[in-house]
């Protein structure tokens, strides 16, 4: 079961401002319309069922958030997209497959409180951090109510967000200097424990017996707050969540998480599209195109060559990717590698080979240090998105392609 079904430690916000005087530091969120941010968190998790280890996994959570409006009281409306992807520990590790996607919309106040409809499953951790209305000195402590919202649709057939309340304890610990940038960061520690008993229904069925009776656990977080930029720089967390069902089973999730927040840079501009198109054209290959799509700017490599019936890149394609890599290195945005194939063989085999070939390209780009593996995602589309008829060899060659998208969202 994916860690994201129960917990995503993601703090969704865009920017913050502060003032500091002899009385301490005033922390608050301050929003600007159209500001965007990207959060990338990794979770190393162990899952136990009735005390026995079930599996270990690494989960990647990618969040894109945009301020759509700023209200008179300083709060702001946000739109956000969430993607979660899981890979088993010990896997190839060259990339993450593009996973389940969620959309969300909410309003957040200057102090950090959420207003969000009961139809959204993300973000999971809400009302963290919440700041007091007064300045805080080093060593100062405060508390605030918060809650987690879990997606239990697949695990327990619960169709609405499953809400678990808690009271978080905060402490402004100290200031630290980033050795790489020289920036001063405020260290804030956050801890909370959860214990929530679900109401026992009057009628008992098999589904009810498998539903959560008690949800409990704890979280310990360290947040490094950047006062100059007015936003969280990064954070770390240790967590443990235990779900006991009415039937008596116990499922435990424990592990660590780390996340970094970056200011978002849009790549899908006319100028960037022109520059990328010119750079690709100068490579001299006739089967590489550049288009602007929903997720960003896409470089499409048609008739990409692999060894027969495999996902092993031919040497000629490696040379081609090495040249494309130099173009990709001029941007910092995440990459999505999408594999496609011609309409031959079974649907299952088409999907498998397109996924494997996308992974092969992603791993080679990672080997070329184009991106950290956590910033390269893959997906396979099989033969479901053809760009030419599959009735001719020329058309099938066009459909055997890999697309590299420099992502905007």
TrEMBL record:
Highest taxon of source: Bacteria
Pfam family, any one = OmpA
**Record flagged with keyword Signal:** yes
Keyword flag Cell division:
no
- Write the signal peptide boundaries: 1-19
Cite a GO CC annotation. membrane
Q: Which of UniProt's keywords are assigned here?
A: Membrane, Signal
Q: Where is the OmpA-like domain?
A: 293-409
Could you list the residue ranges forming a coiled coil in this record?
A: none
Per its record, how is this protein called by name? Answer: OmpA family protein
């Amino acid at each position: 079961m994916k860690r994201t079904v129960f917990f995503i430690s993601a703090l969704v916000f865009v920017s913050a401002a502060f003032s500091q005087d002899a009385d301490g530091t005033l922390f608050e969120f301050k929003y600007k319309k159209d500001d965007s941010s990207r959060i990338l968190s990794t979770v190393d998790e162990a899952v136990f069922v009735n005390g026995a280890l079930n599996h270990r996994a690494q989960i990647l959570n990618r969040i894109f958030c945009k301020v759509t409006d700023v209200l008179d009281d300083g709060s702001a409306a946000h739109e956000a997209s969430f993607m979660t992807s899981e890979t088993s520990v010990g896997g190839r590790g060259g990339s993450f497959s593009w996973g389940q996607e969620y959309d969300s919309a909410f309003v957040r106040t200057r102090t950090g409180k959420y207003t969000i409809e009961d139809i959204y499953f993300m973000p999971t951790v809400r009302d963290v951090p919440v700041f007091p209305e007064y300045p805080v000195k080093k060593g100062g402590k405060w508390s605030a109510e918060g809650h987690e919202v879990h997606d239990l649709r697949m695990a327990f057939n619960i169709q609405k967000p499953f809400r678990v309340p808690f009271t978080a304890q905060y402490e402004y610990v100290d200031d630290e200097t980033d050795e790489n940038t020289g920036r001063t960061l405020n260290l804030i520690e956050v801890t909370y424990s959860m214990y929530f008993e679900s109401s026992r229904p009057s009628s008992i069925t098999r589904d009810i017996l498998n539903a959560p009776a008690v949800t409990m656990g704890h979280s310990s977080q360290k947040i490094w707050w950047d006062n100059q930029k007015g936003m969280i720089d990064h954070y770390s967390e240790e967590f443990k969540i235990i779900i006991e069902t009415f039937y008596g089973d116990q499922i435990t999730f424990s592990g660590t998480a780390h996340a970094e927040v970056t200011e978002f840079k849009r790549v899908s501009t006319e100028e960037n599209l022109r520059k990328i198109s010119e750079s690709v054209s100068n490579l001299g290959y006739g089967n590489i195109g550049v288009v602007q799509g929903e997720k960003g700017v896409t470089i499409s490599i048609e008739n990409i060559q692999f060894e027969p019936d495999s996902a092993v890149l031919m040497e000629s394609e490696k040379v081609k990717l090495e040249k494309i890599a130099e173009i990709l290195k001029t941007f910092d945005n995440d990459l999505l590698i999408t594999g496609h194939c011609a309409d031959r063989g079974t649907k299952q085999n088409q999907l498998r080979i397109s996924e494997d070939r996308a992974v092969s390209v992603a791993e080679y780009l990672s080997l070329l240090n184009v991106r950290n593996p956590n910033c390269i995602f893959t997906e396979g589309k099989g033969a479901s998105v053809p760009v030419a008829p599959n009735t001719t060899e020329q058309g099938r060659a066009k459909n055997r392609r890999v697309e590299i998208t420099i992502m905007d969202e």
